[in-house]
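B., you asked whether I could sanity-check this one before it goes into the benchmark set. Here's the sequence:
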Amino acid sequence: MSFVGKFFVVMQILLSVTFMGFAVTVFTYQTDWKAEAEKKEASYQQLNSQLQNLQGEFDKFKNDSTSALKDAQDRAVRAEATVAAQKITIEDLQNEKEQVSNLLQSQTALAEITEDEAEARRTEAMTERAANAVLHDKLKKKTDDALAIEDELYNVKTVRDTLLAKNKELTEEIAFLRKVVRTHGLETDRRIYNARKDPPPKVDGVVLKAEKNKKGSVDLVEISLGSDDGLVKGHMLTVFRSGLQPGEKAKYLGQIKLVYVDSDQSVGEIVQKAKSGIIKRGDNVTSRL
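And here's what the prediction gave me:
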């Protein structure tokens, strides 16, 4: 064997070892990213579960608070109306008292005119005094009732203020938890989250554009499917080549995860690549596999 032949044999062995090292490195990093993704997914599910629980508690408390607040407001309105009515009644009783007092004075003056009429007037005066005592008792009872209603109205207002403060506190807590979820890059839209838990609808489309990075590999692809087809951010789709074109063979090309969804187009990030074949314009996209 010539020197040149030996040189190429040695170079072939060195290149084989080098590419084997590259393959081991790529496999190691792929495994690490998969574990990290599973860890992030578990963290996302835990945070979302806490968010849903808090949202449920908040909705229940909000409904209870709204009902209690409405009842308290109704009671306050009724109490205010009752107080107003009691005040009117008290004024009427005071007017009646003044009328009775005036009448009593008139009767006493007439009693002094004649002795014959004095006895009758005294008897009538006693009757009026008894009526006046009854009116005093009624006035005292109405006054006590009005004070009790005012106390109840004050208690209702205190309960209402407490409920409003609690409602504000829970609203601020929900806003803070949403901020924490967004800070960790997690989804707060329940519609998108629920759609991610379910498989995508049965759709078929094509690759419109394949973006290559600086290393020449494809990272992002634009497809002809969108939200009008029932897709949302996070759905997984399969990319393959049908082999119907001349000179092409049918093959599996990988999987993409949708990172942006428009009405009739979407952008997917390649999360799994086939060992052979590069995704290009015109390749097929489906959710049926």
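One thing to flag: The CA atoms of residues 189 and 277 lie 36 Å apart. Otherwise nothing jumped out at me.
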